[in-house]
Write a structure and sequence with these properties.
- With 442 residues, the protein is mainly alpha-helical.
- Helix content is 68%, strand content 6%.
- It is built from 17 helices and six strands.
- A two-stranded antiparallel sheet has the order 1-2. Strands 3-6 form a two-stranded antiparallel ribbon. A two-stranded antiparallel sheet has the order 4-5.
- Strand 4 and strand 5 form a beta hairpin.
- Helix 7 packs across helix 8, helix 9 crosses helix 10 and helix 10 packs across helix 17.
- The protein starts with a helix and ends in a 16-residue tail after the last helix.
- The model has no long low-confidence stretch (mean pLDDT 78).
Length: 442
């Protein structure tokens, strides 16, 4: 069956058709809101300022996550980053405070309360970041005259910017939650992915102009293209890779019927956390450079040297960034997969792993296997995210072709296709693969 036939079948299922249309409508609303300017700012001057002050560094990376809304300074300029920051804090608090740890184990009700806390944290983080950004862009002067904010100054501009940007972040958060509950795919990840894809034509145009202007740049452009293709294939392979643990279920008698034993497998993914560690680590690594943007760094050579170390692509930045990705991979995997719960469920169902005693020994075995297979998965994420960034810093290039964007786009695409395929196969339609099926991150 061809891909066109599969696409037609998706619209033959009423429920799936409604979900796809609803998702497209939400994406359209998000892109439409990305063109509503925040009052008091000259976006053209801000865009030129960003281009002249590290457009491929901190601002380029941040602008990638928010879909270009920061350079245009729209009401969606903060994007979903405050929500991600709040999610990191809430999940880390679960390992420190018993109250949050209890909520994480209470199932649907606990997740509902944690989601509410995350929403409150999103408003707080969004408001703080909006005030910081308003102070920063107000400080941009041209010959002593405010350039980015030509008219509205002081408290009025700060309050207006804080309210508009925070409101925009809350709207994006709500749109993402609507996609997750009523659409297709993970809403928050999908919004970030759509923002990256929306900036891709601009990035391609910049790269083409560089090639035209400098014929010697052709070789470097071809090398970057080859790296992107290899990295994309590698991300797909690692996302689909899994370790299968054999599970045996003995014969059992239910009433007057006897059910034969079964041999199944428990799939453990090498990259069970998906792109969440990359998103979390990226949001944290933006803070040092962002703080440096707010401070009078130009007046102090010492501060310049310190904050230069945290520029994307630098040695210290790359090292810390990679370690954070590895840490969050283990952390998020521990949240997603609990070996003790899996072992208890197997024991209640009468299942067991050949050669491993049920209960505590099974949990210990699963924990050891998960720890070992997570290491290459986490190192791979770190290399894909950091490697292209370092190469681009050395030879020039554009951030939208970086490993971070590849990981996000490929991971979100596989998750979304896996959901679509599950709907198709439930209705006895063929999926996207002729043999086997797509496997999402979860």
């Amino acid at each position: 069956m061809s891909l066109i036939d599969t696409g037609r079948n998706m619209f033959k299922i009423p429920e799936l058709k409604k979900r796809i249309i609803f998702t497209l409508i939400i994406i359209f609303i998000y892109r439409l809101g990305g063109h509503v300017p925040s009052p008091g700012v000259n976006p053209e001057v801000l865009r030129n300022f960003i281009a002249g002050h590290g457009g491929e560094g901190l601002f380029g990376l941040y602008d990638m996550f928010v879909g270009g809304n920061f350079s245009r300074f729209t009401v969606f300029a903060l994007g979903i980053m405050p929500y991600i920051s709040a999610s990191i804090i809430i999940q880390l608090m679960g390992t420190v405070f018993p109250h949050f740890h209890k909520l994480q184990r209470e199932g649907a009700e606990g997740r509902k309360k944690l989601t509410q806390y995350t929403r409150y944290g999103t408003v707080i983080f969004g408001f703080i970041q909006a005030i910081g950004i308003s102070i920063f862009i107000s400080s941009v002067h041209d010959n002593g005259i405010p350039a980015v904010v030509p008219q509205m100054q002081g408290f009025l501009f700060m309050a207006t910017t804080a309210i508009s940007l925070t409101t925009g972040t809350v709207i994006i958060m709500w749109l993402g939650e609507q996609i997750t509950s009523r659409g297709v795919g993970n809403g928050i990840s999908l919004i970030i992915c759509i923002g990256i894809l929306a900036q891709l034509p601009v990035s391609v145009g910049v790269q083409v102009r560089q090639v035209i202007a400098d014929h010697g740049h052709v070789v470097i452009a071809l090398i970057f293209l080859a790296i992107v293709l290899v990295a994309t294939v590698a991300v797909v392979i690692m996302t689909q890779a899994q370790r299968r643990i054999p599970i045996q279920t003995p014969k059992k008698v239910v009433g007057s019927k006897m059910y034969a034993g079964q041999n199944t497998v428990l799939p453990l993914r090498l990259n069970m956390a998906g792109v969440i560690p990359v998103i979390f680590a990226s949001s944290i690594m933006m803070f040092p450079s962002m703080i440096g943007s707010f401070l009078p760094v130009n007046d102090s050579p010492v501060l310049q040297d310190i904050f230069r170390l945290f520029e994307p692509g630098g040695i210290l930045y790359s090292l810390i960034y990679g370690l954070l990705i590895i840490f969050f991979t283990y952390f998020y995997t521990a949240i997603q997969f609990n070996p003790t719960d899996i072992a208890d469920n197997l024991k209640r169902q009468g299942g067991f792993i050949p050669g491993i005693r049920p209960g505590k020994n099974t949990a210990q075995f699963l924990d050891n296997v998960l720890t070992r297979i997570t290491l290459p998965g986490s190192v791979f994420l770190a290399l894909i995210a950091v490697g292209p960034m370092v190469l681009m810093r050395q030879f020039g290039g554009n951030f939208y072709f970086g490993g971070t964007s590849i990981l996000i786009v490929v991971g979100v695409a596989l998750d979304t296709l896996q959901q679509l395929e599950s709907h198709l196969q439930t209705r006895n339609y063929a999926g996207f693969m002729k043999k086997g099926s797509l496997r999402g991150r979860r």
